[in-house]
Specification:
Blueprint (H helix, E strand, L loop, with lengths): L2 E5 L7 H14 L5 E5 L27 H9 L2 E7 L7 H8 L2 H9 L12 E7 L6 H16 L4 E7 L14 H14 L1
Parallel strand pairs: 1-2, 1-3, 3-4, 4-5
Bound molecules: flavin mononucleotide (FMN).
Length: 190
């Protein structure tokens, strides 16, 4: 099974990364290594709405998204992890999502959705917010749902935590890291 993950926080060793590390550990100990993309360290231009992918489903921008497209196409499990910024995904995560417009063209204009492998295609959204406002989860999940459906992931689960603000504060949460580990384990076994 192929699992890929996108880490959308700019904060190294921050709450998103700590949760994702546990998910990866859970998946890895149950048979599936995870290839992780640290989006903040990558050069990913925002979508230019140039229409370059309309006829082909292939993005014409040349940057670090190149290998990501292949990995999204061939993955069985896809994890999108992001802090909640201004009630939505981080800019790093949103840039990745928007650059999947080429898959949208491929699926909806060219009528060629990505095919499922033997394990099906499933998604996981991880969100962490400093405030205790559900709207951050609702908005982040709305964008993530559009992303997952565009890349032919028909179902995804959400692991989210609110009221976790300071760097590393997720470690003080009574169950979060254990939940993340179990989520990774379940993802690899499902
Ligand atoms: C630019 C910015 C915007 C933020 N906006 C929100 C928000 O709208 N809702 C919220 O719950 N937390 C918000 N936060 C707080 C972060 O979600 C919180 O600190 C989170 O734990 C960061 O995760 P990280 O350590 O993985 O980066 C914001 C933080 C920053 C830096």
């Amino acid at each position: 099974m192929k699992i890929i993950a996108f880490q959308g926080s700019p904060r190294k060793d921050g709450n998103t990364e700590l949760l994702l590390n546990e998910i990866i550990r859970g998946a890895g100990e149950h048979g599936s290594p995870v290839r992780t993309y640290k989006l903040n360290l990558m050069k990913i231009r925002p979508c230019q709405d140039c229409g370059g992918c309309d006829q082909t489903g292939v993005c014409i921008l040349e940057d670090d998204m190149g290998p990501v497209y292949d990995d999204i196409r061939t993955a069985d499990r896809i994890i999108l992890a992001s802090p909640i910024f201004f009630f939505g995904l981080s800019a790093q995560a949103k840039a990745l999502v928007d650059r999947c417009q080429s898959f949208w063209c491929e699926k909806y204009l060219l009528k060629k959705p990505i095919e499922e492998g033997p394990f099906g295609r499933k998604g996981l959204l991880v969100l962490v917010g400093g405030m205790k406002k559900e709207i951050g989860i609702e908005c982040g999940n709305a964008s993530a749902k559009a992303f997952f459906r565009t890349i032919s992931v028909s179902e995804h689960t959400v692991l989210s935590f609110l009221g976790v603000d300071a760097k590393g504060a997720i470690k003080d949460h009574p169950t979060a890291l254990a939940e993340a580990y179990e989520t990774g384990k379940a993802l690899a076994k499902s």
